[in-house]
Amino acid sequence: MRWEGRPRSSNVEDRRGRGMGMALPVGGGIGGLVLLLLFAALTGTNPGDLIPAGEPDSLGTTGTRLEDDRETQFVSVVLKHTEDTWSQILRERGSRYEPPVLVLFTGATQSACGLGQSAMGPFYCPADRKVYLDLSFFRDLATRFGAPGDFAAAYVVAHEVGHHIQTLTGVAGRVHSARRTQSPRQANEMSVRMELQADCYAGVWGHYGARTDLLEPGDAEEGLRAAAAIGDDRIQRQTQGRVVPESFTHGSSAQRMEWLQRGLTRGDPEACDTFAAGAF
Known about the structure:
- The protein is an alpha/beta fold.
- The protein has helices at about 30-45, 65-70, 70-90, 135-145, 150-170, 170-180, 185-210, 220-230, 230-240, 255-265, and strands at about 10-15, 100-105, 110, 115, 125, 130-135.
- The longest helix is centred in the C-terminal third of the chain and has 28 residues, at about 185-210.
- The chain is globular, with a radius of gyration of 20 Å.
């Protein structure tokens, strides 16, 4: 990918090095101070250690780490490109794009959807409209799953942004409402359709990336290898030695590759209707 030197997003919040990433209200006056002291007393923590050393900069950090961190610069560039892409797509359809915030964390962090942990992999929380990412996942993707490369990593970010698009368009809300009245098997199928649509949306972004000279020859193949590497069937075969299709939540390797490829080829979110009868 030709990402170096491109604009970066200002919607990156860096929580790395903050333990559980607890958002203590230290800036909230007397009430915040009382809560801070109470937390410190209960945990035996030095209150001074809970107070950030400086004010957040434009990328949401308390230091200059983002200037020196190549991985974070890369993620910020990818996020910015998704912002530009979806702003254009939605504007052409008479809508306005509201970008998500991407939270970088290490180990575990709090989200409006509960505790997020690195073992969960990257995730999107519709309750706070934030994408959560431990950058160690990129290394797992390359070593554990055998899917290295810039675009493989970018596909992961674009997939989570795809879930944000589902929230903005109301798809996510409708699916979550429907799942409450479905059997476990039906609910799993709806989950798969949600994930495959996010894969397709990631492909739509990749299509625009190729048009704006962000992608290089071979990048699409990197993304497809990543999609195949994290298919439910492949992961189940690796972890439990057998495949149980009725328990899929993200889709098989073949399905994930198919829908990512569809988005890459067509570049149209209308082609990403995984909920249509017979879509897969």
